[in-house]
């Protein structure tokens, strides 16, 4: 799977995102709308972590799909 497929299946993957990052609100997930960069930013903001760590978490989540 590539990130373009993630964008296309974003509505189906919302539950997985919510399970992985429970501090993200439904509005946050809606605003991400499948964008990797926006997801990394929202995780960084919600969890108060460095961008590199948020990017690493997204990569790990993506690899498990």
From TrEMBL:
<dbReference type="Pfam" id="PF05532">
    <property type="entry name" value="CsbD"/>
</dbReference>
<feature type="domain" description="CsbD-like">
    <location>
        <begin position="4"/>
        <end position="55"/>
    </location>
</feature>
<dbReference type="InterPro" id="IPR036629">
    <property type="entry name" value="YjbJ_sf"/>
</dbReference>
<comment type="similarity">
    <text>Belongs to the UPF0337 (CsbD) family.</text>
</comment>
<protein>
    <recommendedName>
        <fullName>CsbD-like domain-containing protein</fullName>
    </recommendedName>
</protein>
<dbReference type="InterPro" id="IPR008462">
    <property type="entry name" value="CsbD"/>
</dbReference>
<dbReference type="InterPro" id="IPR050423">
    <property type="entry name" value="UPF0337_stress_rsp"/>
</dbReference>
<dbReference type="InterPro" id="IPR026042">
    <property type="entry name" value="YjbJ"/>
</dbReference>
């Amino acid at each position: 799977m590539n990130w373009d497929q993630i964008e296309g299946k974003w509505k189906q993957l919302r539950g997985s995102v919510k399970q992985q990052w429970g501090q993200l609100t439904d509005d946050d997930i809606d605003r991400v709308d499948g964008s990797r960069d926006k997801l990394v930013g929202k995780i960084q903001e919600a969890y108060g972590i460095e961008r590199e760590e948020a990017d690493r978490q997204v990569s790990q989540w993506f690899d498990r799909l």
